[in-house]
Amino acid sequence: MMLKQVTRPMTMQGGAAKKMTPETLADSSATLSEREMKRVADFIGNTVGIQLPLSKKTLVEGRLRRRLRRLGYDCFKNYLDFVLDTPQGEGERLHLVDALTTNKTDFFREPEHFDYLVKAALPELERERIRAGRQDLKLWSAGCSSGEEPYTLSIVMNEAMSVYPGLRFHILATDISHSCLQIGSRGIYTEKNIEPVPMALRKKYFLRSKDRKSELVQMGPDLRQRIQFQELNLMDENFSLPHLMDAIFCRNVMIYFNNEIREQLVARFERQLHSGGYLFVGHSESLNGIKTSLQQVAPMVYRKV
Ligand SMILES: C[S@@+](CC[C@H](N)C(=O)[O-])C[C@H]1O[C@@H](n2cnc3c(N)ncnc32)[C@H](O)[C@@H]1O
User: Fold this and answer.
1) Which of 62, 64, 65, 37 is nearest to 52 (CA)?
2) Nearest CA to 276 among 291, 259, 294?
3) At what angle do helices 76-85 and 57-71 cross, to 10 degrees?
4) CATH topology for 112-303?
């Protein structure tokens, strides 16, 4: 394999990086040693909370190889030295995290939760909001990925306004992944993305391009104006939000954390909820075995009493 030696970027430490040609990029054979895998796993575990056991080495290798190719590194060691050990690697750390988080999501994913929110939780939440004289209900999509979850929340809450005319709500949508937050803030999705959304709701809330051939659809202003996208690392012990929440959706996020981190996070969620507020977790993320005073009220739905 022909590798062309190039000048080492000022920011790099260690051996000289080698720039690769498009041909060599296609069949890059850089391999991740167990030692390097441990460096990655320690960094991701400590900063993001996601556990990466050795069994995930092939997956990590595949995902990071794309970053190596993109930046022109021919071995993991040089890449990791730059990213993890130099201040200049800070920007690339975001890409490393992006590459290793799982962002799979969907509109109306695990739809029973949206039914539960509107039919079972909302009547009481709205009554309590009015009683306490609060301006709006506060919902939080914690680990919102590319925005499908908060937009689904915005759709169902907008729909609920026909039943509760005085209903006002605000949705905070947070994630650690910059690329996901950008997609969410833009609010533009493909026809394929929006397939799970019932046709009547698509017509009501989504904007189509004037170009009939375009496969892209934009979330309409009624949905967008309710949502604020913001970066937030759930591992940050000191995260503080400006207000308490009525409902927190943290679904398919904690599955990647160990029990200790889950327990700490659930305690923080509990503090962040109004009394009577709800926590929704993913269908495979029961809080069994976690010390919490939240009470289960439906499958994967917990309440602060
Ligand atoms: C599988 S997606 C789930 C998206 C959505 N909640 C759903 O259920 O469809 C998990 C998301 O959690 C985010 N995430 C993982 N660790 C995080 C952390 N420490 N802080 C904030 N977000 C995190 C990832 O970036 C990813 O977008």
Assistant:
1) 37
2) 294
3) 80
4) Rossmann fold (3.40.50)
Residue 148 CA to ligand 1 centre (angstroms) = 12
pLDDT tens per residue, range 233-287: 999 988 889 899 999 999 999 999 999 999 999 999 999 999 999 999 999 999 9
- Ligand 1 centroid to Cα of residue 163, in Å, is 32
- Placement of tokens 């041909």 in the chain: 23
CATH number for domain 4-100, candidates 1.10.155.10, 1.10.1040.50, 1.10.40.30, 3.20.70.20: 1.10.155.10
Q: Which atom of ligand 1 is nearest to the CA of 143?
A: 12
Residues with CB under 6 A from ligand 1: 48-50, 101-105, 109, 143-145, 149, 175-177, 180, 233-235, 251-253, 282
Would you say how long the chain is, in residues? 305
Give the Cβ contact number of residue 81 at 10 Å: 19
Interstrand relation of 273-281 and 4-5 (parallel, antiparallel or unpaired): unpaired
199-214 tens-digit pLDDT: 999 999 999 988 888 8
